[in-house]
């Protein structure tokens, strides 16, 4: 039965859970299934060697993690972008990339594809979304980008599902 006071609440949510409480880590998926973790990490390593470039991949990973509400991955990819010299204004603007003139057309096409391939329950990517990639990416790169988007979605689901904690530590620029 739906919660009348909170219509978006899950019917299976714990009645004692506070809406403002920090989630308690659930399971250490890395330790419990190390062979699966290693395989997923291997896919990430292979994607990192693609011709897409680590900076573009990190922007995509950050945007997908924002969409999925993965605090652990958002924190990690912000730190990674900063360590690679990314501009703080661009990092802060990834969430609103459509509204600012801070991203190149190649990045915009990748971010659009990342959003469309992540938000499948809302709508599937249209032909226009696919065609927007063609001026900036080879066919192989489109496949690599799509694998990267799928890969970060898996990480997000693991970290959100098992409530991976964000360690409180200073962000260095």
Give the key terms.
173 residues; mainly alpha; AhpD-like
- Beta-strand fraction estimate: under 5%
Q: Low-confidence stretches at least 5 residues in length (pLDDT < 50)?
A: 1-12
Radius of gyration: 18 Å
- Our count of helices gives 8
Give a short summary of the structure.
With 173 residues, this protein is mostly helical. The chain has helices at 29-32, 34-48, 54-68, 71-83, 88-93, 105-118, 127-131, 139-161.
Q: Secondary structure elements and their pairing?
A:
Layout: H1 29-32, H2 34-48, H3 54-68, H4 71-83, H5 88-93, H6 105-118, H7 127-131, H8 139-161
What can you see in these coordinates?
By secondary structure, the chain is mostly helical. Helices cover 55% and strands 0% of the residues. It is built from eight helices and no strands. The chain is globular. Residues 1-12 have low confidence and may be disordered.
